[in-house]
């Protein structure tokens, strides 16, 4: 992996692959650059694909204290390596980070996001608040296993599946990423869609959701598309939050190449 320095001096590790216009991939929780290997390989015939380890993950460094603004600066550093501007795709909490970065004025051509996990239900957000606070406490105390189990349980993972994961070869890698769950929670805030920030996203935007995802995720995706001035929403039939790269890649290829079906008022 190559490395670049973020504004605060933190080294950010990234990979580049392919040839063509630049596209940067931004992962979600418990993910590294390697998570997007399959998607990058499918996009590489048409684009120069950049994927990176977000702050505190994989081969990237970390510098305390954390702030979401530092992650915006990390993305800016990767964009500089990509030629100064690029198309950007964000997944889950990475989608929320991308939207925040574009609203802050980062030089992005087009934006695609998959299921930013905002919650439109005030009661649901309030019910989740104690778990958000507890996760931050666990991370601060160095209890990576506790933080990881709390997060996975909160996603709806059944106890028997969690027990299987504890014994799986991937578990130590997930434990290593557990402290960055607090970073993803910071990106998401209290889970309410930041309507003022979304309204400041001035680039052509594609908001994608899976047709088999939970209704709250699909509703959030539609709300984001409604709030972003130059956005459209697309549903991928049969897909869940764990979207298949071979289904997603053609959609992203058409969008970033500008060959998707036109939508009135969104030219350019």
What does this protein structure show overall?
By secondary structure, the protein is an alpha/beta fold. Helix content is 43%, strand content 18%. It has 11 helices and 8 strands. The chain has helices spanning 37-43, 68-81, 93-103, 122-140, 144-154, 159-166, 171-177, 181-188, 195-199, 215-227, 245-257; strands at residues 2-5, 11-18, 22-26, 48-52, 86-91, 108-114, 204-210, 231-236. An 8-stranded mixed β-sheet has the order 1-2-4-3-5-6-7-8, sandwiched between helices. The longest helix has 19 residues, at 122-140. The protein is globular, with a radius of gyration of 18 Å. It starts with a strand and ends in an 11-residue tail after the last helix. 40% of the residues are buried. The model is unreliable at 263-268 (pLDDT under 50).
Write out the strand line-up for the largest beta sheet, numbering strands in chain order: 1-2-4-3-5-6-7-8
What's the average pLDDT? 95
The total beta strand count reads: 8
| Main beta sheet | 8 strands, mixed
Oligomer: single chain
C-alpha geometry: globular
């Amino acid at each position: 992996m190559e490395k670049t320095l973020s504004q605060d001096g933190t080294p950010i590790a990234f990979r580049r692959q392919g040839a063509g216009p630049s596209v940067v991939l931004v992962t979600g929780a418990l993910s590294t650059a390697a998570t997007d290997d399959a998607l990058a390989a499918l996009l590489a015939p048409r684009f120069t694909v950049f994927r990176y380890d977000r702050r505190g993950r994989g081969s990237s460094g970390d510098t305390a204290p954390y702030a979401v603004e530092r992650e915006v600066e990390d993305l800016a550093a990767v964009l500089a390596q990509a030629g100064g501007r690029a198309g950007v795709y964000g997944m889950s909490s990475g989608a929320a980070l991308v939207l925040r970065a574009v609203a802050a004025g980062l030089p992005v051509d087009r934006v695609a996001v998959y299921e930013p996990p905002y919650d439109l239900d005030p009661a649901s957000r309030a019910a989740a608040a104690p778990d958000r606070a507890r996760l931050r406490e666990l991370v601060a105390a160095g209890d990576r296993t506790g933080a990881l189990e709390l997060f996975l349980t909160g996603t709806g993972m059944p106890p028997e599946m969690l027990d299987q994961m504890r014994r799986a070869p991937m578990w130590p890698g997930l434990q290593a990423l557990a402290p960055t769950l607090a970073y993803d929670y910071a990106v998401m805030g209290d889970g309410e869609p930041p309507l003022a920030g979304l309204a400041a996203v001035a680039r052509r935007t594609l908001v994608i959701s899976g047709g088999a995802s939970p209704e709250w995720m699909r509703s959030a995706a539609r709300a984001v598309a409604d709030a972003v001035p130059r956005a459209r929403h697309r549903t991928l039939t049969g897909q869940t939050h764990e979207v298949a790269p071979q289904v997603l890649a053609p959609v992203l290829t058409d969008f970033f190449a500008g060959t998707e079906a036109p939508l009135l008022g969104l030219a350019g």
